[in-house]
Amino acid sequence: MMNLFHKYLGKLKNQKLSDKACYIVTEDTVSVYGCEADAELLRAAELLKTPCLLFVKPSEPFMTALNEAAKGGEFAPNDSETRTFLHTVPVIDGLNADEISNALRRRKAVFVRERGIVTSAAFGAEQAFIFASSVIFSGFVKYFADAGEAALLKKPYDRALTASLIKQYIEKFPARSLPELNKDIFRTDGTIMNAMVQAAKVTVDMGLVDSFFGNISAFSENNIYISRTGSSLDELEGEIDVCPMDESSCTGLTASSELASHRRIYELTGNRVILHAHPRFSVIMSMLCADECENRGRCHYACTKKRFIGDMPVVAGEVGNGPRAMVNTLPPEMKDNERVTVYGHGVFTVSADDFNKALRLLTEAEAKALELYQHLACQPHVD
């Protein structure tokens, strides 16, 4: 069990999200893994009577972005991860056990101003890690989306702070040359799955997806090989389902919730691989719009405007198979585009051969989104 807690502490560090974190495990006795635990955290763990509690102090620029996002109290970014997973993030002013436990009884995590994130999980170390990394993503998206919208609408915001945080972010996640991924991948089930495992791990290693979000698939001989729902892209071994295109098998029950979108993309495009991630600035830029139309506030499923990040289309659509789902909007757009962003959700890329091109398209999309954001929100505007 100790190795499991250290594993996720290591993930927080390796993904450059935090250098200071600890798990508090309450079983027969109280055990702490990681940094020293504050007495109020220990008391909160006892009050909650949960198997484990996780405290994370985000590294920069995430900590400052979270503090800024939390200035108005409980916050609710409009990205897909927060809407479907966290809903809102409560905010408190200090490490107080009663306030922490009260917040965690109604939400998955709480942000403590100037201190960090506290999460509790009934199902152990992985679940707590997912909650914490999701809050880091949500707070980052919230701050930069708010600043970007203010810049777009020419409203006041702290341009100098925004530029400073972008600078820190680029230093933390510098542009990297792409590794060469497996080629000639469609020889056997094994070569397909090995290529998916490799490409998925590289996607996480390059900071293009957080937590356990994103998905990946390949199409061969009327079967879709797709990551399972809830799987982590950096640990995909044994987490790939093989789903017949004609839906004659029930294996799709454990497959990614976006299986229907993948299936329709394959039907319409003739491509053979799909890579989907949640790169931060692609998500942020997809949410920025100056229009005060009748669909404002319902953009993630009701937007009908043709929008682009550079030359990459942005479409609306929710997860799932309903009338407002991306399965109705994303696949048709991919008939003429090899990369498309879903509002507040992330980027989908395709290729006819292997994952090399899909990964390149993904990194290029995020680089362009970051470049456009800098031009919008970090440069002095001249009227």
Automatic annotation (TrEMBL):
One of its GO terms (biological process) is pentose catabolic process. The keyword Flavoprotein does not apply. Keywords: Lyase, Metal-binding. GO terms for molecular function: aldehyde-lyase activity; metal ion binding. SUPFAM superfamilies: AraD/HMP-PK domain-like. Residues 194-373 form the Class II aldolase/adducin N-terminal domain. The keyword DNA-binding does not apply. It holds the Pfam family Aldolase_II. InterPro entries: Aldolase_class_II_sugar_metab, Aldolase_II/adducin_N, Aldolase_II/adducin_N_sf. One of its GO terms (cellular component) is cytosol. PANTHER family: 3-OXO-TETRONATE 4-PHOSPHATE DECARBOXYLASE-RELATED, FUCULOSE PHOSPHATE ALDOLASE. This is Ribulose-5-phosphate 4-epimerase/fuculose-1-phosphate aldolase. It comes from Seleniivibrio woodruffii. The lineage of its organism: Bacteria, Pseudomonadati, Deferribacterota, Deferribacteres, Deferribacterales.
